[in-house]
Specification:
The complex is a heterodimer of chains A (326) and B (375). By secondary structure, chain A is an alpha/beta fold. Chain A has a single domain, classed as Rossmann fold (3-Layer(aba) Sandwich), CATH 3.40.50.620. A 10-stranded mixed β-sheet of chain A has the order 9-8-7-10-6-1-4-5-12-11, sandwiched between helices. Chain A has a two-stranded antiparallel ribbon with strand order 2-3. In chain A, helix 3 packs across helix 4. The termini of chain A are far apart. Chain B has 375 residues and is α/β, with parallel strands linked by helices. Chain B has 2 domains: 215 residues, Rossmann fold, CATH 3.40.50; 130 residues, 3-Layer(aba) Sandwich (Rossmann fold). Chain B is built from 9 helices and 20 strands. Chain B has a 7-stranded parallel β-sheet with strand order 7-11-6-1-4-5-12, sandwiched between helices. In chain B, strands 17-16-18-19-20 form a 5-stranded parallel β-sheet. In chain B, helix 3 crosses helix 4 and helix 6 runs parallel beside helix 9. The longest helix of chain B is centred in the C-terminal third of the chain and has 28 residues. The chains are: A alpha/beta (326), B alpha/beta (375). At the A-B interface, helix 3, helix 4, strand 7, strand 8 and strand 9 of A face helix 3, helix 4, strand 7, strand 9 and strand 10 of B. Strand 13 of chain A pairs antiparallel with strand 10 of chain B.
Chain lengths: 326, 375
């Protein structure tokens, strides 16, 4: 937050002159479960991610959008964190295109096979490494598992309060019944209604698709990062965010033509987050997939009826006579 | 109160036990029988002890009631504190939660604190074994759920950590019959605010009754500002006929046709997740794994391809009529009657046929009984 960036100043100045917010967004690259093919599952029951198109988990985009909106309102810094294979850097790149300030990839073979508990442990350890923060945001749930567990589990590991299923954030308030401590006021969806809660910062929020319409990538930011990449890594057109590469730093060209290093994909492994070996990956996962059954449909034995007026009328009559209709 | 019970977190809402908690008690009783153990239920709230007999009538042998004014509103942290304390004290082998807004908020927090496994939105729970190389784990909870966008059904186990925990949506399990003659005990859980015991030394804390819950100041970092909850406007579970629309309906306006058929035959409008996500229909109409599970006399699925999550919520219907343009749509595999065609053409035909036959017949019948038809 030191100097004004002439190129990246997509944010407006804070309307509320409070302290800037240190925002951490947890995101996940997920297989597009609406496009599942036969070889999507491995023998051991884990997901063969290579066989599927990978996308930014939809509700994580809503979480990122909330973070960007909060930054626009109060000022601050948005750090995006993901855990996954090197290819997951794609969601970090997309986060940069939307205005994230800093992105971190948590990647290590030892993280593989993690269930929600081991995942939340690794994410919580990484958030700790980032230093002080005000809000952790993530999507309510990921479309590959639909568990909605990682958010509350990260909150518990960090000793944070939580508000899950957030459909709107009213704002961050300085004055509060809690004295000097800042609070965030947010509304969460419950069965048949909603509830509004106030939580002291730091806190964790999980965000639903109701919260907002995520902004598309900024053409300006895409061009900036692409150009910067081309300049920084001329031989590596699109791999500037490949964390395996030593020069994964993204440099931007300032107005005066000076290269300003602004954002890079920082890759952290198990050591970087001081993770306990027994708490990550498959070893740190209490649950096991016992078996997986592809959903094989039984041969249809439905009685087929032609979509003609006569046939439909006949069926309706029959259902009425059997006292099923009416 | 031997350890190793099968527990249910009993959600209390407006002085009543949530239906999903009673449904879970029914299954918990079956699991406990298989495991030769008993059923426990955990109640949290203010003035909730009086709900104990309801839980016992539905299958609980022991009700652990954490009844304290500070627990009046559901908040994740103090409720998690209660559960974690009780689980550590009494060591149940299984803990089940409703996959409600409360259960889905609470259970992961408890699982994380206890460093144990949790499986969300199970569609079935059974007792079985699991073999890892030479070692066989017996009497494990098989936690069965669709995963991966519903393309697979996974059985999850938690072999080495306790308790084994799972959430289940309302309506997935059958409601057990209440038996007021059943006996059980209600155990009042001592709950104390840490402020009350600030002066107490650590030693004194230790010497208090086992299972005393100490609510810490940091447990109240979240406060409830406002709560607005309405009774469900649609009662899908009680409907005898459901006319459900899916992606094939195509638009919000298209649902007028679904509504028209439902009105004509005296049914209730249902919807697939796709239609709800598209904003054509409110969420309380959603049928399936992440909505309501229904068992009507007749289920008419119009423009619903029939993902496994949707089918899980309706395949127990007595009769299913599926209408879809795609003859390969999975919905036809669970249907008793299938019409391959455009619902926008087929539904008007059905309305017309019903009005000319059923409607007239019904009108005549009503007229004969009451002297006047009601249309």
């Amino acid at each position: 937050m030191s100097q004004e960036d002439p190129v990246l100043s997509t944010r407006t100045h804070a309307a509320d002159p409070g302290d800037p917010l240190r925002l951490v967004v947890l995101v996940k690259q997920v297989p597009d479960t609406s496009n599942v093919t036969g070889d999507a599952m491995k023998e051991d029951g884990t997901v063969n991610r290579a066989a599927l198109p990978a996308i930014f988990n939809p509700e994580d985009l809503n979480a990122l959008e909330e973070a960007l909106l909060l930054r626009e309102r109060y000022g601050g810094r948005v750090t995006v964190l993901t855990m996954g294979p090197p290819a997951a850097a794609q969601v970090l790149r997309e986060s940069l295109y939307r205005g994230a300030d800093e992105v971190i990839l948590l990647s290590d073979r030892r993280f593989a096979g993690a269930d929600t508990l081991a995942t939340s442990y690794a994410l919580a350890q990484a958030v700790r490494q980032l230093g002080p923060f005000d809000l952790v945001l993530c999507g309510r749930q990921a479309i590959d598992g639909d568990t909605a567990q990682v958010g509350p589990q990260v909150a518990e590991k960090l000793g944070l309060p939580q508000i899950t299923c957030v459909s709107s954030i009213a704002g961050v308030h300085t004055a509060s019944p809690f004295g000097e401590q800042r609070t965030v006021v947010a509304t969460r969806s419950i069965e048949g209604g909603y509830e509004t809660l106030a939580a002291t910062l730091p806190t964790l929020l999980t965000v639903t698709s109701e919260a907002n319409e995520p902004r598309p990538p900024s053409v300006k930011l895409v061009l900036i990062y692409k150009d910067a990449a081309a300049e920084a890594l001329p031989d590596y057109d699109d791999s500037y965010l490949n964390p395996d590469h030593d020069a994964a730093e993204v440099c931007l060209t300032a107005v005066d033509g000076r290269a300003v290093c602004r954002a890079k994909v920082v890759q952290w492994d198990a050591e970087a987050i001081a993770a306990g070996e027994d708490l990550i990956g498959l070893r740190g996962s209490p649950t096991r997939v016992k078996n997986i059954e592809s959903v094989v449909l039984a041969q249809a034995d439905a009685r087929m009826v032609e979509p003609t007026p006569g046939a439909v009328a006949e069926l309706v009559t029959e259902l009425i006579e059997e006292h099923i209709l009416g | 109160m031997a350890s190793g019970q099968v527990w249910v977190f009993a959600e209390a809402e407006a002085g009543q036990v949530a239906e999903v908690s009673l449904e879970l008690l029914g299954r918990a009783a079956e699991l406990a029988t298989a495991l030769k153990t008993q059923v426990g239920a955990v109640l949290c709230g203010s003035g909730v002890s009086e709900l104990g007999p309801t839980l016992i009538a539905h299958g609980a042998h022991t009700v652990y009631a954490a009844d304290h004014p500070d627990l009046a509103a559901y908040l994740a942290q103090p409720y998690a504190r209660v559960l974690v304390t009780l689980i550590r004290t009494y060591r149940p082998q299984i803990v089940l939660y409703g996959a409600s807004s409360t259960g889905r908020d609470l259970a992961p927090r408890v699982a994380s604190a206890l460093r144990t496994g949790l499986t969300a939105d199970c569609t079935d729970l059974r007792i079985g074994s699991h073999r890892v190389r030479e070692h066989t784990y017996n009497d494990l909870l098989w936690q069965i759920r669709p995963a991966f966008g519903g393309n697979i059904i996974a059985t999850i186990v938690c072999p080495q950590h306790r308790p084994q925990m799972a959430t289940v949506r309302e309506g997935v399990l059958r409601m057990p019959t209440a038996d007021p003659a059943r006996s059980g005990e209600v155990l009042l859980v001592p709950v104390r605010r840490a402020l009350d015991v600030d002066t107490a030394t650590a030693g004194e804390r230790k010497s208090t009754t086992a299972g005393t819950v100490f609510l810490e100041p940091q447990d109240f970092a979240v406060s409830l500002v406002e709560r607005h909850r309405e009774q469900k406007r649609v009662n899908l579970k009680a409907a005898r006929i459901i006319v459900a629309g899916g992606a094939g309906v195509g638009s919000k306006e298209g649902f007028a046709l679904i509504q028209q058929l439902a009105d004509t035959v005296g049914g209730v409008v249902g919807a697939s997740r796709a239609a709800v996500d598209a904003g054509w229909v409110p969420h309380d109409h959603q049928i399936g794994q992440t909505g309501t599970t229904v068992r009507p006399k007749l289920y008419i699925a119009a423009g619903i391809s029939g993902s496994v999550q949707h089918r899980a919520g309706m395949d127990q219907s007595a009769r299913i009529l599926a209408i879809d343009t795609d003859p390969q749509a999975p919905i036809f595999s669970v249907a008793h009657y299938g019409i391959v065609g455009d619902l926008h053409k087929v539904l008007p035909l059905m309305i017309q046929a019903y009005r000319s036959k059923g409607g007239a017949a019904q009108y005549a019948a009503v007229g004969a009984t009451h002297g006047e038809g009601q249309g």
